[in-house]
């Protein structure tokens, strides 16, 4: 073939799914490279402030409960990318809350990109229903999580409807199977070994029925600020009990004829403290 003939040969147009490379004289199929220009914020706000608080509550409580663990990732309102076609279709919706087990925590993730995570999909997903998303959460999203993600545990809850909690557990042969409620109306999350149930109370000045986690014994999984209040209350109760014990002892010793100074020395108190106890 002459140089002129080479120059006039049309260039081949090869799609990203048909790339070929030479390997020892043979043509070998090369898989398409995943997209890198991913979008992690579509600019769309959450349905309501309560939805935002509900997501943050779930994330914060899980992080506090698993504070000693470094083998999981928890995310909320984040895109999950799982295919090139999804990117092309600009289908950027992600779960409201999800957990992936047995992965590095890496809080710097902007989203969950399956092909960058060794093919791992979320193990647990929770969708917070709204009037505009309810159909998809029960339909297309549920099908996606069941058939493509193969997410083990899927739950839905409407932040404005107290009795809306439902859950499904993935069966290898039958697909998603409804999770039965316990007498309290909670549903068991086998993956996390936690109950999901409702809790009435105030979070960020909003008195509502919130979706919360409970441990195997039925104890509420606390938020960090709740745990701190509980610790402070326990310490205050301990201090009050100790003061009452010393007060009783001081009164008995004073009644036995001991001086204020002697009682103070025996109980490791100041004279002023004994005087206050004796006059209270």
UniProtKB/TrEMBL annotation:
It comes from the Bacteria. Gene3D superfamilies: tt1808, chain A (3.90.1570.10). CDD domains: DUF820-like. Residues 41-188 form the Putative restriction endonuclease domain. PANTHER family: SLR1095 PROTEIN, SLR1612 PROTEIN. This is Putative restriction endonuclease domain-containing protein.
